[in-house]
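Worked example 2:
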Amino acid sequence: MKKIITALLFTFFSIIQAHAQIGSNADVPDHTPMMNKTWDAIDKMAYKVTYNGAKKVYTPFYPKELKALENKVVELPGYMVPLHSGRNHKNFMMSVLPVMQCQFCGSNGIPPMVEVTLKGGAIKFSEDPIKLKGKMVFTKDPLKGNSEIQIVDAELIK
């Protein structure tokens, strides 16, 4: 009888300890996606696949709801994804998910991203979400190094 009570107590305290470790969300950051109508339009960008001989060529395709935003000033919330090492950044990628969250894991694939170039000086990298306002432009030839969708002359909105 004593062994049964000891085993039950051990099991009970083990379950409580495991629940306390798993159920504690105080240290888990909130990685809520920053989706809005602009991000929804960006997420619809696709690639047209053609062939140049045996070589596949991927050309960006911008659907009408995204094309309608070309050369327009948009507001975009999101997370900074640095392109270079360092503390301050004038040019970076912006994502609906934080860089600390694996971008290539999960069932939904790579989240939408845009390249940002700030109008003024550089801003300090932050793991917290930021909000920018700037002009959306499409890169004519993304194979030459820039992202397909860019936000240029961007300003931080506080």
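Residues 42 and 105 are 20 Å apart (CA to CA). Residues 18-25 have pLDDT under 50 and may be disordered.
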